[in-house]
Each structure stands twice: as structure tokens, then as C-alpha cells.
Here is the input.
Amino acid sequence: MSNAVSEAGTTSVQSVDRALHILEILGARGECGVTEIAAELGIHKSTASRLMSALLTRNLVEQLSDRGRFRLGRGIVRLAGSVTSNLEGVSGSRAVTRALASETGETVNIAVLDGDSVLYVDQVAGSNLRSLRSWLGQRVPVHCTASGKALTAWLDNDARKAARPTKLERLTEFTITNVDELERELGQIRERGWAVANEEMEEGFMAVGAPIRDAYGEVVAALTVSGPSGRLTKLPLDELAHKVIASANELSGDTDIWRE
Amino acid sequence: MSNAVSEAGTTSVQSVDRALHILEILGARGECGVTEIAAELGIHKSTASRLMSALLTRNLVEQLSDRGRFRLGRGIVRLAGSVTSNLEGVSGSRAVTRALASETGETVNIAVLDGDSVLYVDQVAGSNLRSLRSWLGQRVPVHCTASGKALTAWLDNDARKAARPTKLERLTEFTITNVDELERELGQIRERGWAVANEEMEEGFMAVGAPIRDAYGEVVAALTVSGPSGRLTKLPLDELAHKVIASANELSGDTDIWRE
DNA sequence: AACGGCGTTGCTCATGGCGCAACGCTATGC
DNA sequence: GCATAGCGTTGCGCCATGAGCAACGCCGTT
Here is the structure.
């Protein structure tokens, strides 16, 4: 490879990186034309068209009409389905999450840090359910969710700051929007071992979360139980929290539930 | 580009295609080493390593340990989340599926054809639920699911044959395993406009499905309502089916719910 | 009709992708 | 302990493929 690439300090393949960047742009915008993609990447539109063609061939994108705009395609959903299938089979975490959902009657999620957001990577619903939409693949703020707090509480100061949005956006009247207040709560979470968010992200909605650790004790994911706050607040919170911790500990250690 | 590519009749970018092929292999196998990937693609392992590095940089894959094996990463889940978010926002199909789930109390799915399988691309749960795991991204056979039947019934003979597995695998005692019998049922589906699968894929599980069409009348997706067969068989099936058809029709036409 | 903007495709060239070879690391066997 | 095998990574230089230019055909607007 040329010196230009060596100096960039990367061993990535440029054309592949560009194609993957296209996927991200489509994810963010919903749909795009080739010319718009080319402008965004600073490349010629014929190049953008050819990269798009490669993505199209493998169904990672689809075209809305002949010679029309593009959006993400079913191949993405299929690949994501493979990820969750592996949680079922290979890593065996589904047995744990399903048991917890069954035991609590509420929805169980596994989430990971994704930049300065929480990303939901698995979900099992319990029986006490009014309505559920899939949270799989959704990103939510770290500062107002039990998962976000459980994921960030044990980070060192620098990492915790990086994982936090620059502005703690207020989503409900209960949202913590002050950094000092959030830091105090994270300190409490470190002491007691579990996190709670009660109507901080969405009114009427509450969650309890605990960290899932890898073999070295690093927090790599969060396990949460969530449901309508009217229901969760009727439970002894401590008792629920310890159920979540027990399941999170079962997922922790050697099991490759999720690694960063 | 060289004549060799022109003769291949493709405008794809080779390196991008290889990288995307790696994603598919990881989806199928769960996890792989670089050497294994290189052998599968017929390339040098240094090339495989570099392609993998590009995928790693964008979090589409992750590495299980330093210098260890690879598997699909959270970036895939995030992108899939973008797909389903667009169903909520841009295409507006979620209002329809949510209303149907609310009205029937059962689980509502949208599915598309993916080769010779059905791929679930969206899901909303109703209230009558014992336990639910996410079907998002999962692939199921066409011959023993209401969605599969609704997706294939209106295909022409050749397309219908291509969309069918070569062997109709028996999953329960009720599974249709004879092509002629399946063809007769597909004929009935074409006449009455909806499909049903009662314990054909999974014991105790039933679904009713109807086609979602594009602006030209082509079937592009299927809408299904599913739940425990003990519950669904207590409903007037005709009535349920017409609810599904009504919702499917609402999703049909100009709305770009899903296009092939 | 003309015009502008779109996505696609032919062509050529130079640069970035590719393969060779070497490296460092880990696990295994003696 | 040492030797071996296999792994993923990295430096290097070559050439094939990715990139950009220009033209094309299509569609929508005026």
C-alpha cells in the first residue's frame, strides 16, 4: 500500500470503508440518492453508484424504484437476526433472560454502550404486558435509562464523560439534567450494584438495571427489567433489583454474551 | 475497469463484495477466524485480515479477544434498528400494525420474501401474550407459515417454484409436505385473499396472513396476526382474516412499506 | 420543446487492493 | 525447557481494480 495510507495510521480498505459509511448515512437519513451520498463522502457520483451497486447485490440496500433513491434493505435485518439467533444458541444467554422475564412478568433487555448512547441488542417480553414494540437496535440516552446508568457507573471519569451526552436532555419532568446530580446517582449505583430509572425517559415507564461483566470484571453490557412504573413500584424494589443482579451475574464471566 | 469485469456482467466493487460476503459468513457461522474466512473466499489471509479490519472500524464485526476470532457486531443491530425506526417514522406503517395488535390482542408481524425463506422485518405485540421472543430478522420456511403462503400465493408458477424449498420439511404433524397439496391451498388463498397456518410450523401456534401490495399490485410483503392456536381458533376466523386484510390494504399502494 | 438533475455506464489510468513474506503470540507436544 | 504449528497482523512492492471524467438515457418541470 502507498505511503498515504501508512501515514493515515489505518489498515482499513478505503473502498470498503466508503461502502460501510454509506450504510451509516442511510441509517441516519432513511433514504438517499447517489448524488447526495457522493457529496457526503466527497467522491464522484459514479463511484458512489458503484459502491451502492455492491451493497444492492447483497441486499444490504434496496432501491425504491428503477434509477431511484436507496434505503437500507432486508439483508441488514437478516444479519441482525443472525446476531440475536446466536444469543439463543451459541452464547446461551436467552435461557437466562427468558427465565427472568418469566419470573418477573416484565420485559427483559440486554443493552450495550454505543458511543454516547445505549443500544438495545436483545429483548424478551414477560406476561404482564399491555403493548410492546421491539426495542432491538434502538438507541436511547445514557443519562435517563437504567441501562445507561448501569453501563456508565463503573467507567473511569474520562470514559464516563465521553459516554455522556454533552447536554443532558430533559425528556420528562423527572429526567436528571444536572451532571453533578447524575454523578451522585452513579456513585450510589456503584455502592448498591444496581440502577433504576423511574419515568426519567418516558412517562409511566420504569426500569431496573444491573451490569453484565466480562471475565476480567469489565462492564460490557447491561441487563434490565422494565415495565409500567405503576406496576414496578408496587414490587419491593430491592427484591427485584437482586433478581436482576443474580441474572446479570449468571451472564457475566466467561460467557461471551457481548464484548466491546 | 478491465475486460474481465465487463464480461462478468457486474458493476460491483470486488473488495466491497468480499467484505459483505464476510458478513454473511459470520451471520451463518456465528464466529470465524481470519484464516477460515480467507479459505472460504479463496483469498489470501492478509487480505481477509484487512477487509475484516475495515468491518471492525465501523463496528459491523467485533473481535472476541486481541488477535482472536470475529463475529458480527453491534453496528449491525444499530443499522437494523434504523430500518425499524423508519417503519415507525417515515413509512408510518407502525400506526397500522399497532392498531391491529391492539384490536386483536395478538402479535402482528410484517414479513418479506428472502430467497426461499420468509424474513420477519417488523413486529408489534398485543396484550394477550404469554411470552414473546423477538422474531425480527428471523427466517422461517415459506410452506408452513401464513406469511410464506401469503407471500408466494400470487407469484407466477416459476417464481413460486423458486421461492419454495426443494423439500417441504415436516416440522409438525400438520405441516404440508406435498407440493400438490400446497399448490391447492395456495389456490384457495388466491380466491379468498388470506392465508392461515395452524400448527404447521410450531405446535400450539397459529397465524393468519394477508398480502401487502405495492402501487402496481405486486405482493411485496405479508402482514400476519399470530398467537396460540387455542386462542385464535376461538375467534371467528373469517372476521379476523378480514381485519388483517383491511390493515394490509391500508399498508398497500403508494406507501413504501417494503419493496423488493 | 428545452432544461436541469438524476442514476448508470464506457473508458482509461494511477493508486489502492492484493499477495508474499515475515513477524509476534499462543497453544501443544515432547 | 525447546520446537513446532497455527493464528492474526504488518511491511513492502506490484499490478489489477477502484476511481474519476465524460457521456448517456430517463424523468420531471417550465
